[in-house]
Design a protein that fits this description.
Helix content: 40-55%
CATH class: Alpha Beta
CATH architecture: 3-Layer(aba) Sandwich
Structural class: alpha/beta
Oligomer: single chain
Distance between the termini: 13 Å
Number of helices: 5
Largest sheet: 5 strands, parallel
Number of domains: 1
Strand order of the largest sheet: 2-1-3-4-5
């Protein structure tokens, strides 16, 4: 069975970084990126979007990305979406690892390889979780 990455719920409050990520992923015609700027928005949009992957910044106002992901996982056990965190804070690494994240993308990131990096983390994580063959 093959699971292709099609939909990403993206949490980022910084407009400049959001624009870079949107540009980096725009070339992937078959990939839908749904952007939200706050943790509560991510939680609210999750059931509607039903993403294949959550790409969350750690440091966002109101409710950080780690707590937003934790809340989503607790509230939506019927649709488990893996998460990749983006952060400039190395202190958050242990907390992120305890969440079972597929990976961490350090800021600043390389816009030229970001899309491939996300797809590789997704494919490796899904293959590990299911034992299935995965298309990136």
């Amino acid at each position: 069975m093959t699971k292709k990455l099609q939909t990403i719920l993206y949490l980022e409050d910084d407009p400049a970084i959001s624009e870079l990520v949107l540009l980096a992923l725009a070339a992937r015609d078959d990939l839908e990126l749904v952007h939200v700027a706050t943790g509560p928005d991510a939680i609210a949009r999750f059931p509607e979007v039903k993403p294949d992957l959550m790409l969350f910044d750690v440091m966002v106002p109101d409710l950080d990305g780690i707590d937003a992901a934790r809340t989503i996982k607790e509230q939506h056990k019927d649709h488990l979406a893996p998460v990749i965190f983006m952060t400039a804070k190395t202190q958050a690494k242990m907390q992120i690892e305890s969440m079972g994240a597929l990976g961490i993308i350090a800021k600043p990131f390389d816009i030229l390889v970001l899309a491939d990096q996300i797809e590789e983390m997704y494919a490796a994580g899904i293959a590990e979780q299911s034992g299935a063959r995965v298309e990136a």
